[in-house]
Here is the input.
Amino acid sequence: QLFDIERIPFGERCVYIHQGDIEHAMYFTGARKFNLACDCPFRESYPVQVFLRKMFKRFCCACLQNQATFVVHGSDRIPHDPGYFCYLCFLHFFADKDGNLQKPVHYQFFPYLHD
Here is the structure.
């Protein structure tokens, strides 16, 4: 909690760590005392996020029409590594007619949300 530290390091690079090893750089740019007249009284509303980068979504590298839902690493069946696929193209490239992954599975695939 912020009030547990001796001083607030304004303008200095701080590191927020979550899930064990994921690090995010953050900077404290200002602070003020709580004012019930203009501040939200719910603790869940804090800290206030002042910047959100624009999310970029890739399109499927096979059909070039749908947004990607899977990212594939290490496959020799695709020209680029990583490859981004929509759901239908992923099934056409990597699954049999029953939806099971074709053997040998020498690649990795993950759900893809955005860059």
